[in-house]
């Protein structure tokens, strides 16, 4: 328990520091873990207890992802959503995969790195939109849909990566069965579940915690990815009282997820990294690819490159989902690469999102000069 106590104390200090600097806490948690872990002072080592607590952070985050999925709305606007999602996927996943292969990773490792390269941090993105009072901007809805599509693709990637360990048919069959079972229980017991969640005693918290933990335990028992089952549970329960579920699950998510990031940093050994120069090049490429895809999406959906600058700036930061992929499927070299990628892009993305109005101004001047000189634009 000593390591847990040190980790929690470190989380509290780093949360205070990050909030005072108006920066996302995720890179601070990872850096703190690096400082006291294998790449730093070696004060703390991961244990079975720490693995259990950090695993709770992982599954509660994925439960949140399920609560936020809106299959009905996705189907209603599927044409435009699939269009922007395809651009994001085509540019960022492909670029990340090619870059990973160039760094010498295997095909499976390259897929993990590419997925981490592709998936933006929705937690950091939404926090910036709220803190910078940009929720009402026209680009915000596009950013929200973009993040939801990335979450859907993340589910498919997890299924694909897990298929190497278990029969794909067995995984799909079990997942579909459990998703249908959760949906049926949520539909038939909607009033009962809603009533239990709206109480003032301990029952709502016990119900939320037990549902998530028991579904994850059952998934691991039958050999289905816990991540997929917990997401399916969240999506099904979203038909009952999603606001209440989010309120009851949030404390577990916030505390255990902070520990997850710290202990991920503790477990990372930068002696296994491909080197500073390749990681720096990958990080710069990650920032550039999100800006480029954002500009293209902005032109497609809003007819404006400046709108695309906002979309790209807010989606630069990689975070929780990239770390999840590294923790679940990454080798030592993959984990160190993704850790550096998350730290770099989350900090760069924070400044880019905060000062996107300046980027828009410089972009406008850049295009104005091109228009005056007759030089064609670099992007459509």
Outline:
The chain has 380 residues and is mainly alpha-helical. It is built from 18 helices and no strands. It is found in: Membrane.
What labels describe this entry?
about 375 residues; mainly alpha; Na+/H+ antiporter like fold; 18 helices; membrane; antiporter activity; Na+/solute_symporter_sf
What does this structure look like?
By secondary structure, the protein is an all-alpha fold. It has a single domain, classed as Na+/H+ antiporter like fold. It is 80% helix and 0% strand. It has 18 helices and no strands. The protein has helices at 2-20, 25-36, 48-68, 71-76, 78-102, 107-118, 122-131, 138-162, 168-188, 190-197, 203-222, 226-237, 242-267, 276-302, 305-314, 320-329, 332-354, 356-373. Helix 5 (78-102) packs antiparallel against helix 14 (276-302) and helix 14 crosses helix 15 (305-314). The longest helix has 27 residues, at 276-302. The radius of gyration is 21 Å and the shape is globular. It starts with a helix and ends in a 7-residue tail after the last helix. Residues 371-376 have low confidence and may be disordered.
| CATH topological fold name | Na+/H+ antiporter like fold
H/E series: HHHHHHHHHHHHHHHHHH
Give the number of helices.
Answer: 18
Beta content: under 5%
The assembly state of the depicted protein chains is single chain
GO molecular function: antiporter activity
Membrane topology: Multi-pass membrane protein
Family: Belongs to the monovalent cation:proton antiporter 2 (CPA2) transporter (TC 2.A.37) family.
Subcellular location: Membrane
């Amino acid at each position: 328990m000593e390591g847990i106590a040190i980790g929690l104390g470190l989380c509290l200090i780093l949360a205070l520091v990050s909030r005072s600097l108006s920066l996302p806490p995720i890179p601070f948690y990872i850096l703190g873990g690096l400082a006291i872990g294998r790449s730093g002072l070696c004060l703390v080592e991961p244990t079975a207890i720490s693995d259990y607590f950090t695993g709770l952070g992982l599954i509660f985050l994925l439960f949140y992802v399920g609560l936020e999925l809106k299959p009905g709305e996705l189907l209603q606007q599927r044409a435009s959503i699939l269009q922007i999602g395809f651009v994001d996927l085509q540019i960022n996943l492909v670029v990340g995969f090619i870059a990973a292969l160039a760094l010498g990773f295997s095909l499976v490792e390259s897929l993990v790195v590419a997925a981490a390269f592709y998936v933006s941090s929705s937690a950091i993105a939404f926090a910036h939109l709220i803190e910078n009072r940009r929720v009402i901007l026209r680009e915000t809805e596009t950013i929200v849909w973009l993040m939801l599509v990335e979450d859907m693709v993340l589910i498919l990637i997890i299924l694909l990566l897990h298929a190497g360990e278990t029969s794909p048919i067995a995984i799909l069959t079990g997942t579909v069965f459990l998703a249908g079972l959760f949906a049926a229980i949520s539909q038939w017991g909607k009033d009962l579940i809603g009533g239990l969640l709206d109480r003032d005693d301990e029952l709502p918290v016990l119900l939320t915690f037990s549902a998530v933990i028991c579904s994850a335990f059952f998934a691991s028992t039958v050999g289905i990815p816990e991540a997929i089952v917990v997401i399916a549970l969240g999506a099904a329960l979203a038909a009952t009282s999603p606001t209440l579920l989010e309120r009851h699950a949030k404390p577990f998510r916030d505390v255990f997820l902070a520990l997850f990031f710290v202990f991920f940093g503790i477990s990372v050994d930068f002696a296994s990294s491909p080197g500073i120069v390749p990681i720096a090049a990958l990080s710069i490429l990650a920032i550039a690819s999100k800006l480029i895809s954002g500009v293209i999406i902005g032109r497609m959906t809003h007819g404006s490159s400046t709108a695309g600058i906002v979309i790209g700036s807010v989606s630069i930061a990689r975070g929780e989902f990239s770390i999840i992929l590294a923790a679940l499927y990454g080798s030592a070299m993959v984990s160190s690469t993704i850790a550096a990628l998350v730290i770099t892009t989350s900090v760069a993305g924070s400044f880019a999102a905060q000062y996107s109005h300046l980027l828009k101004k410089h972009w406008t001047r850049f295009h104005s000069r091109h228009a005056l000189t007759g030089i064609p634009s670099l992007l459509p």
